[in-house]
Each structure stands twice: as structure tokens, then as C-alpha cells.
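Q: I'm writing up a methods section and want to include an example of the input and output format. Could you take the sequence below and give the corresponding predicted C-alpha cells, formatted cleanly so I can copy it straight into the document?
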Amino acid sequence: MITWRRVTERDLALLREWLMRPHVARWWQHDTSPEGVARDFGPAIRGEEPSEDLLVMLDGRPVGLVQRCRFADYPDYRAEVGRQTELPGTAVTIDYLIGDPALVGQGLGPRVIAAVVAATWTDHPDAAAVVIPVNAANRASWRALEKAGLRRTGTADLTPDNPADGRTHFLYRVDRPAGPTPSRP
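A: Here is the clean output for your methods example:
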């Protein structure tokens, strides 16, 4: 069973460990010093930043991280993406990682993405869509989005997280389902 909760200060050492793993470090360009991890995740933990950092668990065991936020809360990012695609004012985006390399490639990523997207319709009742830019070189990530039911809607020229990567990003999107909001899984 996949569940999640907000990241707390107690989770910072685990996040640091995950961020240092090669399969994560390749795509998440973070300062992995204890101070850097606290600086990057502390504001969301303390409620000083509007993003949601969610510790994902599989059968109660921490296995990954999802960051979820509204584009509107990050105007520079919204402008960069919005110049290149139709972006509803209430659109939400996510970023994600699986921390345990033994779980990568086992279908967990698409399950996590699908569960968080489904919960977004309840957690953010005004969200019109979930729009996710992913670097074109990160095949595993965009394949996970496709397996989770998102559709590729175009490409965008965006600043990459890793300066070694190209600027081409694929844009994935899913719109709020019509009808009543589904219950949270």
C-alpha cells in the first residue's frame, strides 16, 4: 500500500542519503551537505514555503519523495513554462524520486505518480490540471509519467536541473476528471 505524509525534520538524514545516491543525484542537483538539505527542505517543513514535500511509503516503509506545488506559487517558473504551453492558473506540478535503487524499474514510480495525481483532485479542489515538465533525456521519468496515465502535450525549452543536460523538456499533463471528485486512495 502506498501512503505519504509531510516531510519532517526527522526525515532530513534519509533525504540526504537518497539525494547522494547516483540514480537520484543524476537528476536532482542538490547540495547534499546536512546544511544544504536543511536549507532546501526546511522552509516547506516549517510552512514558510507553499510547496508540499511528501515522504512516500510502501507498506509503511519510506521509499521516495514527491514535491507538489501550484505553479501560481512560483511566478518565475510559471512564466517560464507558461510561455511555452497553455497553463491553467490553478495548475499543479510534481517532482518525484524513488530513493531505494532496488525499487527503481519495478513499477513503483508510476504507482506513486498515479496515486499522488489522484489525491491532488481532493487535496487541491480548484486544480484544473497537473502539468509536469521532465527533461527529455530522463527517459525513465517520462516513461513513468506515461505509465501513470499522463499524456505528452509538447516540448519546452527550460533551464535543466543539471547543467550537463540539454534544455529540451517534454511536457506531460492530466486534466481534472469530469464529474464528482474521486475519493482519495
